[in-house]
Amino acid sequence: MELEWYIFQQLATLQGSEAQLNVLWRPDSTQIATIEGGVFPETWQGRVQIWDVASQQKEHSIDVTFYFERNFPISNRLNWNPSGLPLLAVVGGILEEINGSVVVDTVATIFLINTDVGYIDKEIPLVTNYVGSAVVWYPSGGKVIVSDPAGFGVYDIATNQYEGATSFHDYVKVLAWSPNGRYLAANDNIYDYTTGAYLGFFTRISEIQAIDWHPDGSKLATVSGFGNIKIEDATLLSGFQVNPIANAGIDQTLTNGDDSESVTLDGSASSDPDGTIVSYIWTENGQQIATGVTSQVTLTTGVHVITLTVTDNDGLTHSDEVVITITMPGTGLRGEYFDNADFTGFKFARINPQVNYDWGTGSPKGI
């Protein structure tokens, strides 16, 4: 197989003053967070920089220095709040200068940085005196999980309370949530957070550096410092369940000859990685309009957003939307007709040479 090489267009260069050790997009893509710092014999010393994507300029430089152990990956120390808040969680320990020597603060800390204004919104001391090597938010955004030598601990950011730890056989270096927010991978161990159950582990990987879930939540990819790259099948773990994947088909635009059109809804591209789909339900505006893998429905002129919800043999569900637009042939003006004054009761649309909004005491088509 011959390799093909491509040169990508460079869109921007954001110039820092020291080595850039980590980079992470804000979920709304307006900012980029980096860890910047220099090398010490046993540590990385860094600070958090916030960059504005639109202006390509450094927006904030948070005046706190963090401690990172060389033996643990830097790439897991930042995590954006998933709920849309401008909060960046950073885990580390403060460096202080005492009698001309740089020493590590004995209390490791979670720093919550408000990136809109560029200051530390909150500091939550860890219950252990070890610098955590990984931090992730709960999918809801209300709590953070931080690794430590004994496993990982849960912290409530509203109350600053430590909610307990999950013990582990080794130092947890990496943490990752499954796409549905149900399972937490800690190194190569899997925990079900809906039941609190430990499901098991894969083949032990020495010096694990990073882990990531497959988009459908059924597999994990792991890499190590010794060159191992592994893909593991999570569905082989006892008790592991994967949501089905609904696929409502491609968007459609159809032209009718009157005011309605027969349309085929097709959900045959839906799948379930670890079982079978037992139910297909089609709805519009919350009202069921059809069932089954495929179904024929009659739609009036206009734009219809139809939702397919599938349920698998484990009772898990997933939904997908398809947009179907029904247009009228001919030329002229398109008029949409409603049965109320607040335009929520759409009835039909049609194209006329002239649209007359003065109906007198009547109405078009007997609405």
| Coarse morphology | globular
Tally of strands: 31
Mind telling me the C-alpha Rg? 27 Å
Taking all residues together, what is the mean pLDDT?
78
**How many distinct helices?**
0
**How far is the first residue's CA from the last residue's CA?**
65 Å
The computed structural class is: mainly beta
Can you summarize the main beta sheet? 5 strands, antiparallel
Write structural notes for this entry.
The protein has 367 residues and is mostly beta strands. The chain contains no helices and 31 strands. Strands 1, 2, 3, 4 and 5 form a five-stranded antiparallel beta sheet that branches. A five-stranded mixed beta sheet has the order 23-29-28-25-26, with no helix packed on it. A hairpin with a 4-residue loop joins strand 21 and strand 22. The radius of gyration is 27 Å and the shape is globular. The mean pLDDT is 78.
